[in-house]
Amino acid sequence: MSSEFNIGRKNKNNSSDFPNPFARVTDTTCRECHHKIKREKLVEELQVCPECGFHMPMHPYDRIATLVDEGSFTEFSQELTSLNPISISGYEEKLTQARGKAGLNDAVVTGIGSIDGRQTVLGVMSFQFMGGSMGSVVGEKITRAILKGADEGLPVTLVTASGGARMQEGIFSLMQMAKTSNAAALLDGLGIPLFIVLTHPTTGGVTASFAMLGDVSIAEPGALIGFAGQRVIEGTLKEKLPEGFQKSEFQLKKGFVDMIVPRAEMRKTLSFLLKTHESESKGWMSR
């Protein structure tokens, strides 16, 4: 695997050497409304069900292709791979299977790209890789992405999709919560914005750390966002919780996210935020 490659970069044969966006998308049935969707329609709709609007999980490379300017994305830290720090039986086999399934070394892709000509450090999580769980590699890549933003003065955009901490790595996994949170605090101290896009699902240790520390928190419609599962909470509290209390619409109503943005509008929204930051930065520097 090369150390760098760009979305849409053309080689001498005029073909892209970046993984073909949506190459893994196939005909499917919506898990929410059971509507059957042809691959062509699914790609056209950016993997949003045309019947009920359910926003399906996306492969990181597919999502990046919908967000950044063509040819602008340069990936970094993709050489990092997880080990088995506490010698959990079968963990290496699960990692091998996950790499084959997702076509990634771990559950997040990080790099630098441009949206309408404005650069941002970008990190996109993959739920297809062991449920997007955060182990030592995911935590390290997220931290490196944030620190690169700090070093280069670039806004950081993180797209989350995770079931939480990776239990096979024990305390090494839990430590990533503090590490990523500390990195986010550093960015805040420098006045560099952190934009978080919460997608379905974002739960557990990721929610309890960097995912809720953005300067602007954006959620996709209908995304499950929470810490523990509904049954666990109800079992602990011994009471019934409100309908849809972990969905993005409920989170918006209660002030836990700033806005809900459909997938088709996400690029435009991020472009506006980057433009606003650029304008404010220039205004501050001219004072």
Q: What is the number of strand segments?
A: 9
CATH architecture type: Alpha-Beta Complex
What structural category do the secondary elements indicate?
alpha/beta
How many domains make up the 3D coordinates? 1
The overall average pLDDT, rounded, is 92
Principal-axes shape call = globular
What's the main sheet like? 7 strands, mixed
Q: Radius of gyration, rounded?
A: 19 Å
The CATH fourth-level homologous superfamily: 2-enoyl-CoA Hydratase, Chain A, domain 1
CATH classification, class level: Alpha Beta
Main sheet strand line-up: 3-4-5-6-7-8-9
SS element count, helices: 9
- Helical proportion, percent range: 25-40%
- Ends distance: 47 Å
Return the CATH topology: 2-enoyl-CoA Hydratase, Chain A, domain 1
Helix-strand topology string = EEHHEHEEHEHEHEHHEH
Percent in strands? 15-25%
Flag low-confidence runs: 1-17
Describe this structure in words.
With 287 residues, the protein is α/β, with parallel strands linked by helices. Helix content is 35%, strand content 16%. Strand 1 and strand 2 form a beta hairpin. Helix 4 (136-152) runs parallel beside helix 5 (170-189). The chain is globular.
